[in-house]
Amino acid sequence: MEGYTPRYSDSIHDDLFESVLYIENKYKLLLISLDIVALPGFRVDRIKRLITEMYGIDSSQIIIAAIHTHSGPTVTDLLIDNPEINSNYWQLITNRIVKSVAKAINDIKEVSVTMSSSRVNHLAYGNRNVSGAPFNDEMIELKFWNNGQMVNSLLSIATHPTVMNVNNKALTSDLIGQIRQNYKRKTGVTPIIFLADCGDTSTRFTRKESTFEEVKRIASLVTNSLNTTDFTSEELTDMNVTEVNYNCYYDPITSPTANELWLRIKNDYEKDKSKKGILDTYKHIRYYGHTHFTTSAYIYDFPELRIVTYPGELVYALGGKIREADSKKTILITLANDYRGYSVDKSEFGKYFESYNSVFLKGMADEFVEKICQRIKY
């Protein structure tokens, strides 16, 4: 299992799924959500190439994101050293995606679209580093209607969806799976769910225990917070796509900035042995982490709203810059198309765990986000 420390599952609590939403107008847009912890970029590229060849959808118009369950099979080498990755499992994921994409395309309907915004009950989740500190408490829904009946829904929430902890050995989609079940019971529709700026948000201060009953309790707080009446009509008639690249290239052994961080962690560990987890996390970045790469964010501009993808876990301060770059409503989809760990703003860098589980050095994430904001404003 991947997420927390490596361990072997002994049971299945609930099935893991792929979710697909296909939109076609003057353009094509395919959105895919996977019940796994994260997505290596090369795996995404392989899946996109298959879809492009089979269905004629350009790779820039395909969004593939993870729900970030910490209780699924190991699928990356991005979080732990020398992981046991089952290539047959990735083939299963790929095959299921291809079948679901075909089903979505063949089941297309004429729809109208509405958008609603809700504020989550702060008893469900919040800032996980400082109790009571700001976090993105907005939940955004896009609802798709056919002859007055809702036929599909996209739900954006901004929290680590983890209630179950390292002691859990049952495969599960955790909080996201329960939210989907609750939503379907209320509406008859299973939503496709994406995570927004959730890098420093979780149930750390709100969960009472790590049990499946607690998963149900918190999921109910989330779904009961959703606005059922106040929504606006949206036009998805035209779409403009912009790719924003970021190049990262440094050697963590020779980089002065990386070494400064490494020495600080080692010194902290010498004073406080309870910080071994942080030491081991950055040790993985130092010796196994991918620090030479090009990654991308995508901006999808519609007449009245915008979708922005981000290839990692974005903290609230940086997510807010993207969401508030201008007056247009923006839906953030993080952990999308790639995974580059946490993205922490330079003012908070080094204060909390997220900084040590990031291949971005201090200030890099700010540069990337600024490039995205500049393209939004351009």
Provide structural commentary.
The chain has a domain at about 240-315 and about 325-375. Helix content is about 30%, strand content about 25%. The chain has helices at about 40-55, 85-105, 175-185, 210-225, 255-270, 275-285, 315-325, 365-375, and strands at about 10, 20-25, 30-35, 60-65, 110-120, 125, 140-145, 150-155, 170, 190-195, 200, 230-235, 240-250, 290-300, 305-310, 315, 330-335, 340-345. The strands form 6 sheets. A 5-stranded mixed sheet has the order 10-8-7-5-12, with helices on one face. Helix 1 (about 40-55) links the parallel strand 3 (about 30-35) and strand 4. The longest helix is centred in the first third of the chain and has 20 residues, at about 85-105. The model has no long low-confidence stretch (mean pLDDT about 95).
Topology:
Layout: E1 11-12, E2 18-24, E3 28-34, H1 41-55, E4 62-66, H2 87-106, E5 112-119, E6 126-127, E7 138-146, E8 149-157, E9 170-171, H3 174-187, E10 192-195, E11 201-202, H4 212-223, E12 232-234, E13 240-249, H5 256-271, H6 276-287, E14 292-301, E15 305-309, E16 313-314, H7 316-323, E17 329-333, E18 342-343, H8 364-377
Parallel strand pairs: 1-9, 3-4, 8-10, 15-17, 16-18
Antiparallel strand pairs: 2-3, 5-7, 5-12, 6-11, 7-8, 13-14, 14-15
Helix pairs in contact: 1-2, 3-4, 5-6, 7-8
- Tell me about the biggest sheet? 5 strands, mixed
Rounded to the nearest angstrom, the distance between the terminal CA atoms is: 43 Å
Q: Please indicate the percent range of residues in DSSP E strands (runs of 2 or more).
A: 15-25%
* Low-pLDDT windows of residues: none
> Approximately how much helix is present in the residues?
25-40%
How many strand segments?
Answer: 18
Structural class: alpha/beta
Q: Number of helical segments?
A: 8
Average per-residue pLDDT, rounded, comes to: 96
Oligomeric organization of the protein chains: single chain
Main sheet strand line-up: 10-8-7-5-12
- List the secondary-structure elements in sequence, H or E: EEEHEHEEEEEHEEHEEHHEEEHEEH
CA radius of gyration: 20 Å
Shape estimate: globular
